[in-house]
TrEMBL record:
Protein name: ATP-binding cassette subfamily B protein
Domain of life: Bacteria
Main location: membrane
Organism the protein comes from: Microbacterium telephonicum
Residues annotated as domain ABC transporter: 360-595
UniProt xrefs under Pfam families: ABC_membrane, ABC_tran
Keyword Coiled coil: no
Length: 600
């Protein structure tokens, strides 16, 4: 995986760090593993933070000393010296604060990059079966929102925890030096605070996960609404679509409200409890000073009250950070769902493919999808010579696309073997094999950029001459010839500025720029009007010369010129032959042709 051109270049493989270190059952430990490459920088940030935050626990003794000087009527020079000390402590805040910002920002942003890059790499290695089961919007939420929650947690929890701990340690040490007996008050307050934080975190964990799941479902519903927009408008179903999103949004509202109420209830109770403790500390210290039971100066009363107030604020800050921390831990668990997914297409350690002739053999291939009683492919035997064009036809759900997916390695057979040039697909590095394969799908997906970017997508060392040649072979030169921008013509979001036929021909040009040995056409003309279909079919007829070409089509008019037509029904091959031979045989192909108006 290539590193970004700017910024900090990670020293670890993002996917390896993700898969080896992130575990759903251990979110906190997983976070520490993710931060391990930044351990020295974060350690230095802690030291710098303690120094820059030292004014918080150094100024109260200065205040106490000044109060005692005032009460005793001491010399002004002593006040000046204490004031100078306070200024020095305050002055170091800025440089050390910038050190903290640079170190923590570097760790936080690099961690976010590493997790996002690792998720992207992991998703690319997961099987198509996983992606078919998983909503695209949920995957998007994991990469965007979950990592954002992780960043937010690190940005808010780190300074809160370090500040609270440094304040606590400083306050206890100085209190032990001045009024040792009051250390016992801290010894009581701190365990109570820790118990409250743990209790809140446990109660909020379930509510946070419920809220995250509801947000993911809302994201999926919004994505669905966007995809169905033409159907919604065409059928006048705007209110129905709005109601579906509103229903899911209401679920998010209720889950979020329950989470907010929980956090608010515990926040209020904890704040009141510690304010009462702070008040008792002040009154107790004042009582001891006035009665003379303990030798406490007025300045020390102020010191103890200030420190306990600081401790109270630190504990409240920790409690307020607890929900953010819980959301961050839930984000780690969500990320772990991808990191721990085992449905992986792993080609590591397998034979690299350096050349392909295009001979394909399926030997008694059986494919069964999870949850299906009947196999999608049931003992398929087929041999395709290199350079031949084979078309697969049959009723919907007969197994045509499954055959293509099996040949491409997207689907792993339960039994049997698939061979390319006599080599078993199970032993090949599929990524290296697919460098010799191009696919033209039914639903064309284009980048929002230019014609050049779309045609050259993923191809290296191609020139404008190569792109023009691919466009010509795909019968798509009209896309750039009618534009002043030429190859820089912008196609719009998902090719919105092009017609359906132009989008499909541009997809064919993108497939041909790679000069594939195997060309796969999956319903490449099914959504086109007759005129566009004719131009695309002409492009495909030229594209398949000299290449092994696999075609799936419902329209028999697009497969007439195939060298062999394979008729599939119920996961089995029931007929093979040319268009003329199959029409004369009077079987399933002949009946399909009759339904489509003769097929001749």
């Amino acid at each position: 995986m290539s590193a970004p051109k700017t910024g900090v270049i990670p020293t670890v493989d993002p996917e390896l760090l993700l898969t080896s270190g992130v575990r759903r059952a251990q979110p906190l430990r997983s976070l520490l593993r993710l931060l391990h490459p930044h351990r020295w920088g974060m350690s230095l940030a802690v030291v710098a933070f303690v120094i820059k935050d030292s004014a918080v626990w150094v100024l109260p003794p200065v205040t106490a000393a000044v109060v005692d000087i005032v009460v005793a009527g001491g010399p002004l020079v002593n006040i000046a010296w204490w004031g100078l000390l306070a200024l020095v402590v305050l002055a170091v805040n800025y440089p050390f604060n910038m050190i903290v910002v640079r170190l923590t920002s570097s760790a936080n942003r690099t961690l976010a990059y590493t997790v996002r890059a690792g998720l992207a790499a992991r998703l690319q290695r997961l099987s198509l079966g996983f992606h078919n089961r998983q909503s695209q919007s949920i995957v998007q939420t994991k990469i965007v929102r979950d990592v954002e929650n992780l960043e937010l947690m690190l940005a808010q929890v780190f300074p809160t925890v370090v500040s609270a701990l440094s304040t606590l340690v400083g306050a206890v040490l100085i209190t032990a030096l001045n009024v040792p007996m009051f250390v016992a008050v801290f010894a009581v307050a701190i365990p109570i605070a820790a118990s409250l934080i743990v209790y809140i975190r446990r109660r909020a964990a379930l509510r946070n996960e419920q809220f995250r799941v509801e947000v993911e479902q809302l994201s999926a519903r919004v994505s669905e609404m966007a995809a169905l927009m033409p159907i919604t408008r065409g059928h006048g179903l705007e209110d129905v679509a709005t109601a579906r999103v509103a229903e899911r949004a209401d679920s998010v509202r209720q889950a979020g409200r329950a989470l907010d109420v929980l956090n608010g209830r515990f926040g209020a109770i904890s704040w009141i409890s510690y304010q009462v403790l702070g008040l008792l500390c002040l009154l107790g210290a004042a009582t001891l000073a006035v009665t003379g039971l303990v030798d406490i100066t007025p300045g020390q009363v102020v010191l103890l009250s200030t420190y306990f107030g600081m401790l109270t604020n630190a504990i409240v800050m920790l409690m307020n950070a607890a929900p953010v921390f819980t959301r961050g831990m839930d984000a780690v668990r969500s990320i772990a769902d991808v990191a721990e997914e085992l449905d992986v297409e792993d080609s590591r350690g397998k034979d690299e493919v350096r050349a392909v002739r295009g001979e394909i053999t399926l030997d008694d291939v059986v494919v069964t999808y999870p949850g299906d009683e009947r196999p999608a492919l049931d003992g398929v035997d087929l041999h395709i010579d290199a350079g031949r064009t084979v078309a697969f036809v049959g009723p919907s759900g007969s197994g045509k696309s499954t055959i293509l997916n099996t040949v491409l390695g997207f689907v792993v057979p339960a039994s049997g073997a698939v061979r390319i040039d006599g080599r078993d697909l199970a032993g090949l590095d599929l990524r290296s094999l697919r460098r010799f394969v191009s696919i033209v799908p039914q639903e064309t997906v284009l980048l929002a950029g230019s014609v050049r970017e779309n045609v050259a997508y993923g191809a290296t060392d191609v020139t404008d001459v190569d792109i023009y040649a691919a466009l010509a072979e795909a019968n798509a030169l009209d896309i750039v010839q009618g534009s002043d921008d030429g190859l820089d013509t912008v196609v719009g979001e998902r090719g919105s500025r092009l017609s359906g036929g132009q989008r499909q021909r541009l997809a064919i040009a993108r497939a041909l720029i790679r000069d594939p040995r195997i060309l796969v056409l999956d319903e490449a003309t099914s959504a086109l009007d007759p005129e566009s279909e004719a131009r695309v079919t002409d492009a495909l007829d030229r594209a398949r010369h000299g290449r092994t070409t696999l075609i799936v089509a419902h329209r028999l008019s697009t497969v007439r010129g195939a060298d062999t037509i394979v008729v599939v029904e119920h996961g089995r091959i029931v007929e093979t032959g040319t268009h003329t031979e199959l029409l004369a045989a009077g079987g399933l192909y002949s009946r399909l042709a009759l339904v489509q108006g003769g097929g001749a």
